[in-house]
Design brief:
alpha+beta, 10 helices, binds aspartic acid, Glutamine Phosphoribosylpyrophosphate, subunit 1, domain 1, about 350 residues, globular
């Protein structure tokens, strides 16, 4: 049978209105609320491993009643303001011109809102600026100079984000450049040693309300203006209050092409537990990897990590290569857990 587009739309609208949208076998469903009884889940915060201090802070604030997104942002603020964490905020590694450009995005499950900033300069907490975009504008994403102007208008204080240590690392990188270098073939050791780092944090409270945030200084030595996955809603982080949240760290270029965080949440919606959902998204990343980035045996020459939590407080994480860990805090306290992986390192 073939339907015209109009017939199809009318039919879908009628089915959906009647509550008959097709569901895949095993699709995840929030337990049906018993009349008068609110949803009860397990509070849980999951993040990249550098969030080991932040998950505890976020968890404590959340169980004390703070909104899960505000709690998660308070958790990532610790790394953003730590000059020794060279992957985010103050002290983040700069672009090829020595300028620190920051990216962040966040999502709030209960209100289904999102905010993001990219290429933000001079403000140490892009996660809070992303939240301000979400709270105070009719937009989702601001970039570059406009994002900076908005942040200053909102009262964020400007400061020099380039620490001495990051400046010296940048100078060292620069001194090794030669006129024949190309962006695509800089040496392996530089790429692995300096280019990755970010913090993603996802928090769910006992009522099953969820918040997610990702913040980063992006890939070190990037071309000015480069934007990674972190500020892209659906790539760097994603949250659907009926299912769960997910986020990522690692090579943003690979994640953007697969809309990774959204994909993880969709796999959970279809019934996959969080760890399985992360692994399935990584399989898609490998399938979408361009030939120049594949090494022996078709293995990607980069790493990427996903972290996920469900509305009920189940969590998981997975990385392309073994040995990865992620941070979690629940009623058992803050700890690092081993991530599942697709390949042995
Ligand atoms: N995902 C970040 C980006 O591509 C970097 C990272 O996590 O290492 O900007």
């Amino acid at each position: 049978m073939s339907w015209s587009r109009r017939e199809f739309l009318e039919r879908s609208a009628a089915l959906s209105a009647a509550g008959f949208l097709p569901r895949l076998p095993g699709a995840w469903e929030a337990p049906a609320p018993v009349a008068g009884t609110p949803f009860r889940g397990r509070p849980c915060v999951v993040s990249s491993s550098n969030g080991i201090r932040g998950v505890q802070v976020a968890y404590d604030r959340m169980v004390a009643g703070e909104d899960p997104l505000d709690a998660a942002i308070a958790g990532v603020n610790i790394q953003e303001l730590d000059p020794d964490d060279q992957s985010v905020g103050l002290g983040g590694l700069p672009n090829e011109e020595g300028v620190v450009q920051l990216d962040a995005s966040c999502m709030h499950g209960p209100t289904r809102r999102a905010g993001a900033v990219a290429c933000l300069e001079g403000i140490a907490t892009p996660s809070l600026v992303a939240k301000a975009v979400m709270d105070y504008t009719d937009h989702v994403m601001l970039v570059g100079e406009g994002a900076g102007r908005f942040a200053r208008a909102m009262g964020f204080k400007e400061q020099n984000l380039l620490t001495d240590k990051s400046r010296q690392d940048w100078m060292r990188w620069k001194s090794r450049l030669n006129p024949n270098d190309a962006w695509l073939d800089h040496s392996e050791d530089i790429r692995i040693k300096f280019t990755t780092g970010t913090i993603n944090m996802n928090a769910v409270n006992a009522a099953g309300d969820i918040g997610s945030v990702t913040t980063t200084s992006g890939m070190a030595w990037k071309v000015p203006g480069r934007i990674g996955d972190s500020p892209i809603v659906g790539a760097g982080q994603y949250c659907d209050n009926t299912v769960g949240a997910a986020g990522s760290t690692g090579r943003g270029e690979a994640n953007i092409k697969t809309c990774g965080a959204f994909l993880v949440v969709e796999f959970m919606r279809q019934g996959a537990p969080p760890q399985q959902a992360c692994l399935k998204a990584l399989e898609r990343v490998v399938a979408m990897t361009e030939a120049r980035l594949l090494g022996p045996g078709g293995r990607p020459r980069f790493d990427l990590e996903f972290y996920a939590v469900t509305k009920a407080g189940d969590f998981g994480g997975a990385t392309l290569y073994s040995g990865g860990r992620f941070a979690v805090c629940d009623e058992r306290g803050a700890r690092l857990e081993a991530a599942a992986s697709l390949f042995r390192r």
